[in-house]
Amino acid sequence: MNEAQQQYPEAASEAxxxxxxxxxxxxxxDLVETLNRTIFRQQQQLDLLQAQxxxxxxxxxxxxxxxxxxxxxxxxxxxxxxx
Length: 83
Prior knowledge:
This protein is an all-alpha fold and 83 residues long. Helix content is 80%, strand content 0%. It is built from two helices and no strands.
């Protein structure tokens, strides 16, 4: 302890408390920034997955529509020749 801290111990403890609080606030800010980046990346991934799902849904819908307009298939024609 320096001379001022020896004369005013309550000031020293307040300075230590203030320094501790500043450290905690800094750590909390870092954590919030990390969480924000994580949420941003997750939202990008969700947007991509939703776009892919919409694309697949359109493909399946158009395939179902085209199959509905075609004549029914004979399943025996699909059997490989080695059977």
